[in-house]
Amino acid sequence: MRTSYLLTTIVVLALGSYFLGRSKAFAVSKSCGGVKGLHSLPSHYGMWTALWCAVPALLVFALWNAGESPIITSLVVAGLPPDISSLPPSRLGLVINDIKNIISGNITSGTPSPAIMQAAEHYRTLQAISVNAMTAVILSLMVATGITIRNRISPTLKARNKVEKLIQLFLFLSSAIAILITVGIVLSVLFESIRFFKAVPLSDFLFGLSWSPQTAMRSDQVGSSGAFGAVPVFAGTAMISLIAMLVAVPIGLMSAIYLSEYAGNRFRTIAKPLLEILAGIPTVVYGFFAALTVAPFIRDTGGLIGLSVSSESALAAGLVMGIMIIPFVSSLSDDVIHAVPQTMRDGSLALGATKYETISNVVVPAALPGIVGGVLLAVSRAIGETMIVVMAAGLSANLTANPLKAVTTVTVQIVTLLVGDQEFDSPKTLAAFALGLLLFIFTLVLNIIALYVVRKYREQYE
Amino acid sequence: MDQPATNPTIDKMNRGLKRRYRAERRFRICGATAVFTALCFLFLLFFSIVSSGYKAFQKTSIQINVFFDPAEFTNENLATANFPGLIKASMSAMFPEVTSRSDKKDLYYLISPGASFQLINLVKDNPALIGQTQQIWVSANDDVDMLLKGNIDRTRPESERRINDKQLAWLDTLAGERKIKKTFNTTFFTRGDSREPELAGIWGATCGSFYTLLITLTLSFPIGIAAAVYLEEFAPKNRWTDIIEVNINNLAAVPSIVYGLLGLAVFINFFGMPRSTPLVGGLILTLMTLPVIIIASRASLKSVPPSIREAALGIGASKMQMVAHHVLPLALPGMLTGTIIGMARALGESAPLLMVGMVAFIVDIPQGFTDPATVLPVQIYLWSDSPERAFMEKTSAAIMVLLVFLLLMNAVAIFLRKRFEIKW
User: Fold this and answer.
1) Of A84, B84, B130, B331, which alpha carbon lies 20 to 30 A from B253's?
2) What is each CA distance from B144 to B58, B105, B153, B424, in whole angstroms?
3) Which of A188, A293, A380 sits opposite B48 (nearest CB)?
4) Is the pLDDT of residue B363 over 90?
5) Residue A1: is its pLDDT beyond 70?
């Protein structure tokens, strides 16, 4: 709570220094013939002062908060009696945990010894000192920089250029975050995957035919040898995505063609937003729909005609995923069909072709690269889709080509391996990151190809 | 021109004409069917959710006469009194003929375990109740609720029902005495999660969603707009900005679960942030929403005509002033629309949050950014996994609430677009 007060104080002080800087600018302007004599507007001088006041203070604040906990902990450990502080690091970690639990008022393991209670008290005093020291340092820093900058204000100070340079730096850093995210994704999945591939050879992972990631906790446990052959998982993903695309591409493409070439204006203004609603529905809702309505329906229908259908069949998950992707395909196709120049249609119609012939022989071939790009994007979306398959597809990895059986997918496995408690030294947890890496690489390649194709296509007609 | 009918080319064409028109009609019908099928799926989806969920907005209560026996309240701490005992006593008083142990157990089963908390609160608010007899409406058990809503079939054999014949008879007696009623389900909107369906509500998840989205909005909106402004107005055209641009487009298409892996590895394992908190969830959703906001904001900036920029520069504004005073205000409605759509997507997102422990069973209403919390879609996922029939109804109802929020957000976005969009 103290920190939020401090943050508010920093903001208030920075605001105050804005007005200080501005009034100083007005004051110095009197010596050089009014505001016109200043290099920048008075508000720029104010902003310059405020920035100098706030930015260093915020930096100190961030650094202090990041460094506070480890420093205090090491100080407390140094103050512990020698029989505790000489424990091996893992036991010491438990002791430190106990101390922190006492401070935050949580339940500790067992009754804490007096030494530990003392250490907690020590920790608490150090923390209080740290907060007070931080407040003092930050406030004095703000006052110091504020006064210094205010005294520096003169009619020749190029306040505007400096302020603008700083803002531009902020803008640049914001856009660089995009790169940072990608780097973060790659590094986070890569490191854990490398650890995984140290335990399980890459070839076993990529070409193994059996997937059962439960590793044994005891050596004599039954049926938990831990097999990490990902082929059944890939096959399941491919099958569900294929079913989804078989639903989404024809329906999506045909509705895009119908809406852009045939439908009347009124029908279009009603039908298009309705289709877009389909895109805005959260995937967890589709998952519920698949598990509760579609899967039982398919199972019962299958039972009627004498087929044995699993209640977690690939067909149900794929069908619902296809419904989810329909608007995606149709809006992307709609875009590219619209980009085909009207003159090409007119030319074909003028030669006596019917509308159908115009569409199938002129419009669609012309739009084909864009449509293919859109379909590729849709495939990447189907592969990465999680909630529908988590709720409606199975967990066991069957290598089968029968869409009525239960299969599992990459995303389902990632979720099941990572939900709940994890230990980051077992291949079971790390396997999820290896799957994540493959998923990322695969969708990335698809996206790059698709975006490239779509961009090239757009340029062709622009 | 004298014998047009015998012209072989025209003949050939006329013969083919019928077939071609048929193909044309077939294609047109195909297209209409596709649109119709997609719309059918939409209506089927809504119908199945609404039909299974609308009843969750009502709940069943049973009226009991509770005698607040002073003998039970000897301890100073009122909460230690035997409240379940009070309820059992009042149930037994209503059905004195029930004597055997197992029958009594069946009888007490009709009342929700949460009823004693209701009594605790009553006595805490008004200690004068001790020693009095009060008529109180308490929640019925979820199976009773399901029975009265028609979700348990009375005609099925007793062994296949969750409510046995005796319980049926008691309930019919209660109904005959007008001691059972259905009321608007306020519990559903004011409570956190619970293992008992009749006590479970979405308020905890709604608060969790609120805190999570607040973090997402405060981070992704300024950063997203700043990035868009830089790329659109300031960035030199070079390799570096090309990389950033391709990158952003790719990030928008990265599967959401990969962001979950990132959050788990970076925020939780590397920075040691607390699990299950809106803080971590909000950060992950920020990373996911940023590309969406950047792309929408750039499109909005692009639509501001260059003449505005030239005019501002022409009267001596600096580049920053031109952007801040002229371009940004004109582009802001579009940016806001994009942001709201991004936030709507973030509100419905659940997969990455499963990775960082927001899937935990949390009863308490979160009070801040570092309290353990869950969000609406994850709550839906959790409930949909529960075996009780009553939770299925709750799931559908929670989905309806989530969809209402999403529709509202999208409506605001459309309103903003229609109201403030400037056609150049």
Assistant:
1) B331
2) 13, 15, 12, 62
3) A293
4) no
5) no
How far apart, in whole angstroms, are the C-alpha atoms of residue B360 and residue B362? 6
B253 with B394, same domain: the answer is yes
Give me the pLDDT at residue B2, please.
Answer: 53
Closest CB to B229: pick one of A171, A282, A354: A171
Q: Which residues are CB-neighbours of B242 under 8 A, at least 6 positions away? A: none
Determine, for residues A381 and B253 on separate chains, whether the beta-carbon distance falls below 8 Å: yes
On whether any CB of chain B is under 8 Å from the CB of A292, the answer is yes
Interface of A with B in 293-332 (CB under 8 A): 293, 323, 326-327, 330
Q: Are residues B226 and B180 in the same domain?
A: no
pLDDT at B4: 53
Boundary of a domain, candidates B155, B184, B213: B184
Inter-chain contact B244–A323, Cβ cutoff 8 Å?
no
Q: Is residue B2 part of a domain?
A: no
pTM above 0.90, yes or no: no
Q: Is residue A206 part of a domain?
A: no
> For position A401, which CATH number holds?
1.10.3720.10
When scoring A104, A253, A386 by the number of chain B Cβ atoms within 10 A, the one with the most, hence best to mutate, is A386
Q: Is residue B78 a part of any domain in this protein? A: yes
Residues B93 and B130 in one domain: yes
The pLDDT of residue A108: 58
The whole-number pLDDT of residue A110 equals 62
The residue of chain B nearest to residue A383, with distances taken between CA atoms, is B255
Task: Decide if A196 is inside a domain.
Answer: no
CB contact residues (below 8 A), chain A span 348-407, against chain B = 354-357, 359-360, 377, 380-381, 383-387, 390-391
CB contacts of B247 in chain A (<8 Å) are 178-179, 182
Report the alpha-carbon distance of residue B401 to residue B206 in Å, rounded: 10
* Whether residue B283 is found in the same domain as residue B373: yes
| A387 and A300 belong to one structural domain | yes
Inform me whether the C-beta atom of residue A104 falls under 8 Å from chain B C-beta atoms.
no
Chain A interface disruption, residue of B39, B45, B273, B388, most A CBs within 10 A: B45
Domain containing A453 equals 227-461
Q: Are B259 and B172 part of one and the same domain?
A: no
Please report whether residue A211 resides in a domain.
no
Do B243 and B139 lie in one domain? The reply is no
Q: What is the pLDDT of residues A110-127, one digit of tens each?
A: 666 777 778 888 888 888
Residue B290 lies in a domain: yes
- For residue A255, give the nearest of B38, B256, B294 by CB distance: B38
Question: Pick from B94, B61, B89, B93: which is nearest to B173 by CA?
Answer: B94
The range of the structural domain enclosing residue B259 comes to 203-420
Considering the domain boundaries, does residue A197 fall inside one? no
Please indicate, yes or no, whether residues A234 and A374 belong to a single structural domain of this protein: yes
Asked whether residue B311 is domain-assigned, the answer is yes
Q: How far apart are CA B227 and CA A170, in angstroms?
A: 9
- Global ipTM: 0.90
Beta-carbon contacts below 8 Å between A and B: 258
